[in-house]
Amino acid sequence: MINFDNLFRRLILTQSFVRGWGNPFHLQEIFTYRREKIGVRDECLKLVPAENIQENTVEIIKQEIKGNQNYINGRFRSPLANYLPHLVPPQVATAYFQLVLPRDHRFGIDSIPIGICYAGTGDHGFSRRRLFTAVPLINQYRIGSILLENPYYGLRKPPDQSRSSLLYVTDLYIMGKALILETLVLLHWCQKMKLTPAILHGFSLGGHMASLAFTNWPGPLSLLSCASWSSSSTVFCDGVLSRTIPWSLLKRQFYENKAYQIFYDYLRERNRSIDSNKIVLDPIKDMMRLLMDEFTSLHNYSRPIQSNISNAMFIACTHDGYILRNGIPHMNDVWPGVHIRYIPHGHVSAFLFNQSGFHHAVAEMLQRQEANVKLKRNPIISPISITTPENS
User: Fold this and answer.
1) Which domain of life does this protein belong to (predicted)?
2) Where are the domains of the chain?
3) Which of 15, 57, 104, 264 has its CA at 20 to 30 Å from residue 344's CA atom?
4) Do 241 and 9 contact (CB within 8 A), yes or no?
5) In angstroms, rounded to a whole number, what is the distance separating the alpha carbons of residues 285 and 359?
């Protein structure tokens, strides 16, 4: 199945970070902001206080009834654009989403369980997630969905960016920080609009963004992270996506600009206790690994409140060519008590053939959070896989 992942990737021409690392001083600024603000729950919550989020914080720009669904499109200003305006392109500064509800639901009057669904790599717009996730969740379980557009995707794509090819490494980190703060806006708004209880969920990149956002919410919340793990460092350094990175360009920029080398030395020093015996053969790939761990490792964010960890599940693919779990912390060590389920799939085949399993797991995690949640049909809470050396 890993071979199928490799084959599928060869059919996709999209490259990653086609203009290199990004401004080294911006990289350092994002790093500091992650460490002091976004990665610390109490500090992060101060950036999006509940009292600042009102019903009119979100602008409803379109509403349409189709079949048994009610589609409501909304937008709001991304909080990150207020705090780091020089790092957020104008197109990224406005967050767009589509709310998918049952046709007969009285929006803002009756409560309904809701899932905030994050986009995977290359998933522009709302149509794919609406077809594969939102409509089935309504039809099978009467769970609504908020389909949040990724920064740098769809309506939020800068004009000089081609498809999903992020121009700079820094763009990925801005994407993550923006989504974390935008999730806080949406969760506060959901409480006002009676869209509760809530779950964050997604596949691959979407699953990891859901996990990052999950760390900072102080109240009841569920998580389903599919085909993602504790860090993205192995994704970009060892997995299938590593072949999409212009390593020669990154190497040239690294040696032409002393600022990159200084920041790399700083990262190495920060991680010296962890990698004290490590021999670095390739400083460029080592810098990429250190950066990805700094910005994407769940170890570097607040651990979710304990009561929410029991409402969280990771579904891992045993033959995943994109998400490699060796060499990064096990989720049992990062969030002790988190649920982990293994499925005998590769990355692509899991998306194609396990959608019903993901839908069931969304309902299951909501039911773990609130036993009496009103679902169209109650899923049976399944036993969780036991982690063993063979399946971990």
Assistant:
1) Eukaryota
2) 2-369
3) 15
4) yes
5) 37
Helices within 193-335 (DSSP H only):
205-214, 233-237, 247-256, 258-270, 283-296, 306-309, 331-334
> Which has the closest alpha carbon to 134: 122, 116, 156?
116
pLDDT tens digits for 162-200? 999 999 999 999 999 999 999 999 999 999 999 999 999
Q: Quick check: helix, strand or coil at residue 71?
A: strand
Helix axes 205-214, 169-192, angle to 10 degrees: 60
CATH of 2-369, one of 3.40.50.1820, 3.30.930.10, 3.40.1620.10, 3.10.50.30: 3.40.50.1820
Phi-psi region of 18 (alpha: psi -120 to 50; beta: other; left: phi over 0): alpha
- Residue 10 is predicted with a pLDDT of 53
- H or E segment to which residue 203 belongs: strand 198-203
Q: What is the pLDDT of residue 333?
A: 97
pLDDT tens per residue across span 45-71? 999 999 999 999 999 999 999 999 999
Integer Cα distance of 162 and 243 in angstroms: 18
pLDDT per residue as tens digits for the range 90-109 = 999 999 999 999 999 999 99
Helix (H) or strand (E) holding 72: strand 69-77
Lowest mean pLDDT among 4-8, 189-193, 208-212, 274-278: 4-8
Q: How far apart are CA 228 and CA 204, in angstroms?
A: 5
Could you give the CA distance from residue 288 to residue 267 in angstroms, rounded to a whole number? Answer: 11
- Whether the pLDDT of residue 391 is over 60: the answer is no
